Amino acid sequence: MKRAALAATVALAACGGHAPAGHGGGATMDGRIECRTGDAPFARACTVEEAESGAGHVLTLRKPDGGFRRLLVTRDGRGVIAADGAEPARVSVIGDRRIEVTIGADAFRLPATIAPR
Q: Which keywords does this chain's UniProt record carry (predicted)?
């Protein structure tokens, strides 16, 4: 796997909104992203909400079952971290402009700006 650093922000946050359709397979204009829960296959079924908090830019990833995960966008090259909860977020680069964020049994595919390390 090639070594890469995520740029300061995930593309959704950098745009101040949702990435356009076809932008690296990320979010569509309706804000849907690919996700999976447990052993289910990936489907474009989750939504993304953005907000500012005292800690910084927060992405709320809403799952089809009503559950959600919150991510804090970092500025140190990691991309995102879990904003709360006991389970850490694991971030993997899966394409030129995409990352996969796994928290517990949930996984989300997000558009991202990726810079060579």
A: Signal
